[in-house]
Design brief:
By secondary structure, the chain is of the alpha+beta class. The two termini are 32 Å apart.
Amino acid sequence: MKLFRLIAIFLCIVVSVSCSKVEVEGLPAPEFTAQTFSGDSLSLSEFKGKPVILYWFASW
């Protein structure tokens, strides 16, 4: 039972450290290109000077 508790605590610490906030404010976003559902390409540079929100969704 003690081993289980130690493993649980260790996993909680690992998850909390890996999910910590990364400071990227003020840094430029890396350039990338994504494909739309219609097959067109969108580049991040097309939106220069405009706010961009990326919503990553995964269902598994």
